[in-house]
Amino acid sequence: MALTTRQINATKPGTKIVTLSDGMGLELRITTNGSRGWRLRYTRPNGKRNMISLGKYPEVTLAEAREKRTDLRRLIAKGIDPVEHKQNEKRALKYASENTFKVLAMEWHAAMVPRWKEDSKRVNDSRRVLEMYVFPKVGDRAIESILPLEWLDILRTLEDAGKFEQRRRLHAFCRDIYRFAIITGRASYNPLTDLQTALKPYKRGSFHHLPQSELPQLVRDIEAYDKSPMVRIGLKLLLLTAVRPGELRRAEWAEFDLNAAVWKIPAERMKMGRAHQVPLPSQALSELRYLHKLTAPFKLLFPGRNDPRKPISDAAFGMALKRMGYEGRHVPHGTRHVVATGLKELGYPREWIELQLSHKLPGIEGVYTHAQHMAPDQRPAMMQFWANYLDNISAEV
């Protein structure tokens, strides 16, 4: 006979397990400690008997237990084992949660960091662009559920903003994440492989930079810039040192020895992952001592306005050049081209210039040559001559 709620509530625990049957395999088992749980006995597709739990009473009512019995018997009628079906659902749920794009991206990133140990910029940049452009949109999605059109929309967002280089890097990172997922058995298809044909072609060129003929006016315009003393000093230091704008923005006072006239940038902040020594001409020392009066209480030379623990915006130097009238003609990174060209025209050795730019020499020379050329008559003398040269040409009218 079918069970009733009254019968269930009236049945007390005994010295052995009490079993109340509702028919068609549904039972309520009452243990000696009073726990009550629903069970469904059934025959598996292979003919063997089995049992599955349907939850505890009264959390699962009699009516709800009967509904579950009906649903499971439908599966059995289709030749599906309810226990195996439940296990498959758990596996699918676990697979979905453990195989989201963000989870796999962070696994890939952790695997790549040891290989990129000599390129700290790639370590930081790869994570930053993923956090900015991908994780907010599809990070929590199962990797195989993300459609090619969704990737196209993400990449075109950067394309429409004119950020072609960032688009290229992001495309490469995401493509490699899918390759990692395929190799580790979490994906079967890479939608990033064929997207290139749907994107606008982009050929990477050199950064915008002025010819040597316009260098005197650039020096004068930087000296006259009055919107921010920090930005003015930053632009001038780029000309006096030829470092990358990011290396300068993130510079810390602890890296400078003004008495020895040298700036030692640690390896973790360098693009090539190698420590770099920058000789400081007297003009740079003068600017740094003035800047020290402004920002000495902070760790950074160029602390941000809203959060001094972070450097000023990477757009600060570029915006200043735009205000001076150099938009589309000269950018902060282009200053390295100007300095390198000027030093070459002045007749300085290629090795000194390349080392000043923190470039690795090509071929065998780059493998076996580790000279810093920091003797007083080498790079320090070269950069002092360059600083004097800038003073001279900017004074000529």
Description:
The structure is a single chain. By secondary structure, the chain is of the alpha+beta class. The protein has three domains: 5-80, Double Stranded RNA Binding Domain (2-Layer Sandwich), CATH 3.30.160.390; 101-198, Tyrosine recombinase, N-terminal domain (DNA polymerase, domain 1, Orthogonal Bundle), CATH 1.10.150; 212-395, hpI Integrase, Chain A. Helices cover 49% and strands 9% of the residues. The chain has a four-stranded antiparallel sheet, covered by helices on one side. A three-stranded antiparallel sheet has the order 5-6-7. Strand 1 (18-23) and strand 2 (26-30) form a beta hairpin. Helix 7 (148-160) packs antiparallel against helix 8, helix 9 packs antiparallel against helix 10 and helix 9 packs across helix 17 (379-395). The N and C termini lie far apart (110 Å).
SSE blueprint and pairings:
Elements (H helix, E strand, L loop, with lengths): L4 H6 L7 E6 L2 E5 L5 E8 L5 E8 L5 H16 L4 H17 L2 H12 L7 H14 L1 H4 L9 H13 L3 H20 L31 H10 L4 H13 L3 H5 L6 E2 L4 E4 L10 E4 L2 H14 L20 H8 L10 H12 L4 H7 L6 H6 L10 H17 L2
Helix pairs in contact: 4-5, 4-8, 7-8, 9-10, 9-17, 10-12, 10-14
